[in-house]
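re the bet — no i am not wrong, look at it urself. input seq straight from the record:
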Amino acid sequence: MEIASIIIAALALLVSIASLVKSSAASKTANDLTKGQVEMQIRSMITVAKAHFSEMSNQLAANPDNPTLKASVSAALEDVANAYDEACAKYLDGKVDKQRFKQLYVNEIRNWVDSEAVKDKYIMPQSRFHATVKVYDEWNNLER
């Protein structure tokens, strides 16, 4: 009788281990899918913001004295900065694959932050875009 109990307990242990392995694999797959969705949302958010900025800039070029268009271009530029900052915040929070994010965005973020149009927005400590500055420094500050 005691041997039967040991065999049943061992089988139960094996079933539990198999269930743990399967649930762990399923959880990793779900986590990877979620990260993929976040990465797609980031790309979309940045693309839409940049397209809107480009559209507003073109309209302003056609009508440079229009104060409403000037304000719209400024707001669109802010939207692009916000999109990059949100993307960098997700990177810092670990909600995206960090290696892939860096491969995709290292040059794009460096070019954005270094561009004359927005460079003054990223001067610390007054910058409102702390996540972007932190990621930029992590990737570009050789003294770290």
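see?? The mean pLDDT is 91. told u. also Residues 32-140 form one domain. so pay up
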